[in-house]
Specification:
The chain is an alpha/beta fold. Helices cover 42% and strands 18% of the residues.
Length: 160
């Protein structure tokens, strides 16, 4: 397994160690089912906000609940491996829950990055409370127009 992929149970110790060495931890999360240029640009922008980028990905069960149409296309281990292969991603963790509260509690980020399809007001209230307790700064990264996993899937299905 890729050394960048860390079990949820190991996450708290790892992030505490990073903070103890003075690293500014940037955290983001999502399904990242079919990685496209919009995702890569977003992750690069998130990484530029700090010293270490930790990406939490929804496990297969929670992705099925969040998405429709037979998603995820790729299983959680494959999605983690693809993300871990990116130079801008330092750590990847799979979390099983629908919402990222436990992941965020364990990570304790300095900065929480979300894509421009979110605003601070549309973030999940429970997740915002965890971020507030951690003292995390929320940063919204501008949305990359023209990039969408759902649109990509429609395009692929239309070419069959």
């Amino acid at each position: 397994m890729n050394s960048k992929i860390v079990d949820l149970e190991q996450l708290q110790a790892l992030t505490a160690q990073l903070r103890a060495t003075g690293k500014k931890l940037v955290v983001t999360n999502g399904c990242f089912d079919l990685l496209h240029a919009g995702h890569v640009r977003y992750l690069q922008a998130a990484r530029a906000l700090g010293d270490v980028l930790l990406v939490g990905i929804n496990g297969d069960d929670s992705t099925r609940k969040l998405k429709s149409g037979g998603r995820p296309v790729n299983n959680e281990n494959d999605r983690a491996e693809v993300l871990a292969a990116l130079a801008c991603v330092d750590v990847v963790t799979i979390f099983p829950e629908l919402r990222a509260m436990r992941f965020l509690e364990l990570a304790q980020p300095a900065i929480y990055a979300k894509g421009g399809d979110y605003t601070v007001d549309t973030l999940n209230e429970d997740e915002k409370r965890v971020l507030d307790r951690a003292g995390a700064e929320v940063r919204i990264i501008p949305f990359e127009k023209g990039y969408s996993t759902s649109a990509l899937l429609k395009k692929v299905c239309a070419t069959k």
